[in-house]
Amino acid sequence: MNRGISIALTSIGIAQALKIPLHYMKKKEWKPEQFLATGGMPSSHSAGVSSLATYIALKKGVSTIDFALSVVFGLIVMYDAQGIRRQTGELTLKVNDLDELVDKIKEDDPVKYEEKVPDPLKEVLGHKPGEVIGGALLGAAIGTAGYRLSKK
After folding, report:
1. Do residue 44 and residue 17 come from a single domain?
2. What is the pLDDT of residue 35?
3. pLDDT, tens digit, for every residue of 74-84?
4. Judging by beta carbons within 10 Å of its beta carbon (0-12, 13-18, 19+), is residue 13 exposed, middle or buried?
5. Cβ–Cβ < 8 Å for 143, 50
6. Could you tell me the sign of the dihedral formed by the alpha carbons of 122, 123, 124, 126, in that order?
7. What percent of the chain lies above the pLDDT cut of 70?
8. Where are the alpha helices (DSSP H) in 61-122?
């Protein structure tokens, strides 16, 4: 497999795995399903793209088109992870709150109401800026390690 791809995928896996103990340290609950969760610390999106950009910078140099593409791609991914996806998650919180509001209104309504209970929308979709930075730093470290290990 291409070394850059394997480093990026390894970074994503390590970032996802780190979510389990970090969640435990913060919430005091062991949740292995955090491995497959979106959002949270560190951002696996940021780790993947920054490890790839770091590896390319060390392997080919910062003046190459490969590095330029990886940086621009990485910035777009990280912006999306903490911008658009985070806003979507915050909007989802509001939508889920509306369900509770409808229930309260329904209690005072004499009209027959047939409730269909949907699953609540997932509320953690994106990342806080610190989670994106944490993922980027983790990715840069893994990209550097991957480069150094490939030289041996």
Report:
1. yes
2. 85
3. 999 888 887 77
4. middle
5. yes
6. positive
7. 79
8. 65-82, 84-107
* Domain enclosing residue 67, as ranges: 3-83+129-151
My answer on whether 37 and 90 are in the same domain is: no
CB atoms within 10 A of CB 58: 17
Please tell me the pTM assigned to this model.
Answer: 0.72
pLDDT band at 50 (very low <50, low <70, confident <90, very high): very high
- Is omega for the bond preceding 42 within 30 degrees of 0, making it cis? yes
Query: pLDDT tens, 26-40?
Result: 888 888 888 887 777
> In the structure, how many helices (H) and strands (E) does the chain have?
5, 0
How far apart (Å, rounded) are the C-alpha atoms in residues 77 and 80?
A: 5
User: Could you tell me which residues come within 8 angstroms of residue 53 by beta carbon, excluding any fewer than 6 positions away?
Assistant: 67, 70, 71, 74, 139, 143
